[in-house]
Amino acid sequence: MQDHLPLDFRSGLFVGRLQLPAGPTPVVLQAGRVIDVSAIAATVSQLLAAWPCDISAGVDLGDIADLPLQTAWQEGSTAIRLLAPLDLQVVKASGVTFAVSAVERVIEERARGDAQAAQALRTSLSARIGGDIRAVQPGSATAAHLKQVLIADGLWSQYLEVAIGPDAEIFTKAPVLSSVGWGDYVGVRSDSAWNNPEPEIVLVADATGRVLGATLGNDVNLRDIEGRSALLLGKAKDNNASCALGPFIRLFDSGFGIADVRRAEVQLEITGDDGFRLTGGSSMSLISRDPLDLVGQAMGQSHQYPDGFALFLGTMFAPIQDRGAAGQGFTHQVGDVVKVSSERLGTLVNRVRTCEDAPPWTNGITALMLNLARRNLLR
Questions:
Q1: Nearest Cα to Cα of residue 104 among 319, 325, 368, 264
Q2: Residue 207 DSSP symbol
């Protein structure tokens, strides 16, 4: 586990959740020590709402390097697992926030989910608008002019509307408590033939919209299903084990803040049982909308989150490397190991299964409340 933490983890402050024998438990990682803070705050949501707070009454579980944390696919078993670092927060996502992503979404739409047809579209469409769209500020007069030009050329798309229009695409990625964490399986629907991971930074905010920190996320995307119709976004995005978060939330402090998020580099590595390897990345400096603008569009007088929320910021990563036949592009295979990493946030690692074969989601809000009540942690 220590290899998947930032190099400076002993000088940072992190929040996460462990599955202990007693039940899911919020913890703070401070100076490399894992502190059980459940007696102070029963949930991560409650902890962040009160942050900063005194955690001196927490229970020291030991150094993170000494905890017997294992991935779900390692042999043997352990009573301690690392869970997704969120609990009661709503998981939201912003889409088409990078120019490259915008072009790929248009390609998906026009190819109707056909990976082979996408290659010809990619070549022609990118040549015509790729250079222009990267320099356009969303919602600006220049964006409005480009929209009119593209409409006249028959190239306008609902994806370009959210890429350069005034309103960002904000959607709900996953139900409360359904996300998987570091070392768990991530799910892809068995009826999807064109899909990919989406490596992203995820901001975490409280009920007031105060951004408290960031973590890593994999916003698993089924390109063929969304490509058939944008109205199938829910079916393409929200499935069993399709949202991965972790390993920890890095809290903002004097050594790490929103400026670090704005200049972060997010790396992706996929290795398959077939020997296939793909690497890529996403540079937050190239995002079209500022992260705090996206947070502001996610909540406000018209939308509240009383237990806080997390927001995927989007990605510029859209894999086009052929895995099999020429022109077929990339798609997942069962057994793929996916690593999403960033220097100040660590590494989120998951292994691909079909949604049907991934461990079913059974512990929802009722199960959590009953567990906390049995432990006398509800106040």
A1: 319
A2: T
Partnered with residue 354 across adjacent β-strands are 188
Cα separation of 106 and 116, whole Å? 15
Helices (H), 196-315: 223-228, 233-237, 258-262, 291-298
Tokens of 304: 């509240």
User: Cα(56)–Cα(228) distance, rounded to whole angstroms?
Assistant: 53
- Report pLDDT for 128: 65
- The rounded distance, in Å, linking the Cα atoms of 213 and 202 is 9
Enter the tokens of residue 187. 């799910």
Looking at residue 208, its amino acid is: T
Phi and psi dihedrals of 291, rounded to 5? -55, -40
Question: What is the average per-residue pLDDT within 333-359?
Answer: 98
Element (H, E) at 101: helix 99-111
What is residue 329's predicted lDDT score, i.e. its pLDDT? 78
**Whole-angstrom distance, CA of residue 248 vs CA of residue 266:** 15
DSSP single-letter state for residue 300: B
Phi, psi angle pair for 204, to nearest 5°: -120, 125
| pLDDT higher than threshold 80 for residue 185 | yes
Host H or E run for residue 339: strand 337-342
Q: Which two tokens stand for residue 289?
A: 């909308």
Name the band, by pLDDT with cuts 50, 70 and 90, for residue 143: confident
Q: Dump strand ranges (E) for 84-156.
A: 90-95
Dump pLDDT digits (tens) for 89-134.
999 999 989 866 677 777 777 777 677 777 777 776 666 666 666 6
The model's pLDDT over 187-205, given as tens digits with 9 standing for 90+, comes to: 999 999 989 999 999 999 9
On the CB side of 20, how many CA atoms lie within 13 Å of its CA? Answer: 18
pLDDT given at position 318: 76
- Residue given tokens 């409650």 in the structure block: 46
Confidence (pTM)? 0.91
Contacts of 280 (CB under 8 A, 6+ apart): 199, 267, 268, 317, 319
Q: Nearest to residue 28, comparing CAs of 50, 46, 47? A: 47
CA–CA distance, 27 with 217 (Å, rounded to integer): 19
Helical (H) or strand (E) element with 106: helix 99-111
Find out whether 323 and 276 touch, Cβ atoms under 8 Å.
Answer: yes
